[in-house]
Amino acid sequence: MIAVIDYEMGNLGSVSKALEYLGGDVVITQKGADLSGAAKIVLPGVGAFKDAMNALKRLGLIEPLKDEIKRKKPYLGICLGYELLFERSEEGGGCEGLGILKGDVVKFSSGGIKVPQIGWNQVKIKKSGCSLFNGIEQDSFFYFVHSYYVRPKDSAIVAAATDYGGDFASMVWDENLYAVQFHPEKSQKAGLKFLENFMRL
Q1: In terms of CB atoms within 10 Å, which of 27, 41, 116, 181 comes out highest?
Q2: Is the model's pLDDT at 158 over the cut of 80?
């Protein structure tokens, strides 16, 4: 079973439908007990960082989520679900994140680029051995919608990068943690392959 966390934000429908299309047994949940019973966890996301953190706190999901990640359960964070893993975001005047990974979330500089980034962009695989890229070609296009990006403190966890006014970390991978700035559920063939690989972990 794959638990898709419902924190009353984000693109739950498109993520869950994509996983179900691939044959996944999906439960959309706000319960920590479901995270414990699931084989894998997905945290999708579209929206504001601070609102998302407040919702996770209100629903009592922060500690259950951290516990399952510590137990080495496969986790996939998508867009905001990627950014929330880090220590702090400058969005909305600043907000503390989950602090599972070290680093900050910062806004793109508007100099020479449109903010937010909306549309297709290439993903350059930087870290070999990441099974979520099995069967996906280098520099494949994925779909992005975001104004902020992550600056991880540990460059060793950067699994992929994308050029938008300069390279930024579009994916991190640290043992059981997989998190992406792009939206695989909106990325057609490459995105479905990416989700299928996550399901096969």
Answers
A1: 181
A2: yes
CATH, residue 177: 3.40.50.880
Q: Is residue 144 part of a domain?
A: yes
Instruction: Check if 185 is active-site.
Output: yes
- Give residue 121's identity as a one-letter amino acid code: N
* H or E stretch at 12: helix 12-21
* Chain centroid offset of residue 116 CA: 17
Token pair 């259950």 in the structure block, residue: 64
pLDDT band for 110, please (50, 70, 90 cuts).
confident
Task: Indicate if 130 belongs to the active site.
Answer: no
79, 83, 146, 196: which one is catalytic? 79
| Any domain includes 177 | yes
| Dist CA 171 CA 47 (whole Å) | 19
User: Known catalytic residue: 95?
Assistant: no
Taking a C-beta distance cutoff of 8 angstroms, is the pair 166, 119 a contact?
no
Give pTM, 2 decimals: 0.96
Q: Total structural domains in the chain?
A: 1
